[in-house]
Amino acid sequence: MGVADMGADGLKLYGVEFSSRLLAGTAQFPSPAILSRVIAAAKVEVVTVSLRRESGGSRAGERFWALIRELGVRVLPNTAGCRSVKEAVTTAEMAREVFDTPWIKLEVIGEDDSLQPDVFGLVAAAATLTREGFQVFPYTTEDLVAAEKLLGAGCEVLMPWGSPIGSGRGLNNPYALKSLRAHFPNVPLIVDAGIGAPSHAAAAMEMGFDAVLSNTAIARAADPARMARAFALAVEGGRLGYRAGLMHERDMAAPSTPVIGRAFSDLARA
Amino acid sequence: MRIHVNGKVLDVAAATLAALLRELDYQDGAIATALNQNFVRKTDRGKTPLKEGDAVEILVPRQGG
């Protein structure tokens, strides 16, 4: 029996079900063909996309959008780089028209070195967009109060960072991420940003997170399709481990082989 | 008339946002527009006049993380 057969375990985001728990960014790939191979190799069903300026006469944006549509994946447009509520809301409105989806990965950046989310702006933008009918995926920190307020603003999914975007540092604050998971057991939580290795993705899934979003670690690998497959396996393995129930850590050793019946056990130690 | 388009100052003849897109050779496909930081729907571009000093954003799909 393959791991995929071990009980239905779909991911549901705003009422839409997916079998893959690995979401992928589409930036920084060496070529569109490699991006296509990555999506196929990892069986990714949701990809992030963005909107950017382009000169008249250039058709790069159109070609990219045609490629994504051919892949048959669901798109999650972002508001990457936005630094104010106004910028983020306007960008989201523009994205909804172009990509024809109410989904928006909401980013309101508050600090340049860490690209840390401005959680105050994030909550305000999320409230506005929810009122406008968007289904908001806020890129946030692991802050519990911010998470609570984002849910209050209408978000049904949260995307806490693992560590700063593009840093590859993995899960910077496991304690806080575990707390977040424990506080919101029924909210889909997707670890986004900073995931640098398959082991980071597996660790997030073992903590009980619902999915992982990876971009740079896959796109910048020497062999992106192979790395994507590695991430897919890590996510699946971590998820299975979580569902199976991980053992609790101990400070001291505990023999796994039975102690009773051990030869020479009646001899005094020197 | 001098306006800002995607951060660049341009001298244009177009009187509306829809005319501006034609003047600058944007196809009518996957693009989104904003005027002075406010989203302008595709269906509203023809009735959105431009004036001196306006800031227009014309965005297209792009790779993103």
Provide a concise account of the structure shown:
The complex is a heterodimer of chains A (270) and B (65). Chain A has 270 residues and is of the alpha/beta class. Chain A has helices at 32-42, 60-71, 85-99, 119-131, 144-152, 174-183, 198-206, 216-219, 224-244, and strands spanning 11-13, 16-18, 22-25, 46-53, 74-77, 103-106, 109-111, 116-117, 135-140, 159-160, 190-192, 211-214.
Describe this structure in words.
The complex is a heterodimer of chains A (270) and B (65). Chain A is 39% helix and 17% strand. Chain A has 270 residues and is of the alpha/beta class. In chain A, helix 7 links the parallel strand 11 (190-192) and strand 12. The mean pLDDT of chain A is 94. Helix content of chain B is 11%, strand content 37%. Chain B has one helix at residues 17-23; strands at residues 2-5, 8-11, 32-35, 38-40, 55-63. The chains are: A alpha/beta (270), B mainly beta (65). The interface between A and B is medium-sized, with 40 and 27 residues. Strand 4 of chain A pairs antiparallel with strand 5 of chain B.
Helix content of chain B: 10-25%
Low-confidence regions of chain A? none
Radius of gyration of chain A: 21 Å
The shape of chain A, in one word, is: globular
Number of distinct beta strands of chain A: 12
- Please describe the biggest sheet of chain B, giving its number of strands, its sense, and whether it closes into a barrel: 5 strands, mixed
Report the total helices of chain A.
9
Task: Report the order of strands and helices of chain A.
Answer: EEEHEHEHEEEHEHEHEHEHH
Instruction: Count helical runs of chain B.
Output: 1
Helix content class of chain A? 25-40%
End-to-end separation of chain B: 37 Å
CATH class of chain B: Alpha Beta
Q: Count the strands of chain B? A: 5
Number of domains of chain B: 1
The CATH topology label of chain B is Ubiquitin-like (UB roll)
Please, what is the average pLDDT of chain A? 94
- Biggest sheet strand line-up of chain B: 2-1-5-3-4
